[in-house]
Amino acid sequence: MKQPREHRASGSPKPLIFNATPILYLCKIGASSVFMEISEEKYTTPKVIEEVVDKGKSLGASDAFIAEQLIERSVIRVRRPRNADFIDQILRISDLHRAEAEVLALAKELNGVAIVDESAARQVARIYNVRAHGTAYVLLRLVYEGKLSMESAREVIDKMISTGWRLTAEEYAKLMKELKSA
Predict the structure, then answer these.
(1) Which domains does the chain have, with CATH numbers?
(2) What is the signed CA dihedral for 158, 163, 165, 168, rounded to 10 degrees?
(3) What interhelical angle do 62-72 and 20-28 show, nearest 10?
C-alpha cells in the first residue's frame, strides 16, 4: 500500500506535535478516536491547551471537554518547548500566534512533525527546517496504514469543512484524488 513519501522514508516514527486547529476540529466533529489510531507519540503545548481546553471550557464548548479527556488519558501529552529564544525569534519574524510558535519549537526540539493547518505556520516551519503538515496528512496516513477507510476519511474531512475548517477547492480536489489512489 502506498504511503506518504515522508512516512516511507523517515525510518523510525517521528512524534507528532499538534496545534489547536487539528485537535479542535477532530474533537468538534466527534472524530477524537483518530488520535488513538495514530501510533506515533503525540504532543501539544501548554499554549495550545490554553486555547483549546481552557478557553473552550469557559465558552461551554463540548469539544474542549473531549480534548481535555485526551490530555488526561495521555493520548496527547503536553510538553513545554525549552527554547524560548527560538519561539521569540519565530514571533519576531512572523504573524504567527504564540501557540503555533510553540508547536514549531517543540517539533524542532523533538525532531518531530508539527501538525498545523495554517499555511503561514507551515511556511515558517520550512524556513526553520521543521517538518510540518496539516490534519489532512494525518488522515491520509491512517488510510494508507489501513486504520481508516477512504470513506471515513472523506466523511471526517467533509464534516470538518462543514464546521468551518478551511480548505480551498483546489486543496480539496487534490486531497480527494490522493484518497482515491490510497
Answers:
(1) 12-181 (3.40.50.1010)
(2) 60
(3) 110
Question: CB of 50 within 8 A of CB of 19?
Answer: no
Successive 10-residue mean pLDDT values, the chain, 182 residues:
44 90 96 96 97 95 95 97 96 93 98 95 96 95 94 94 89 87 78
Give the helix ranges, DSSP H, for the chain.
5-9, 20-28, 33-37, 46-49, 55-58, 62-72, 84-93, 98-109, 119-127, 135-144, 150-162, 169-181
Write the single-letter amino acid at 11. Answer: G
| Residue 132 β-bridge partners | 114
| CA 126-129-135 angle, 5° bins | 55
Distance CA 63, CA 67 (A): 6
DSSP three-state, residue 94: coil
List Cα–Cα distances, 7 to 14, 46, 65, 85, in angstroms.
9, 27, 31, 30
Model pTM? 0.89
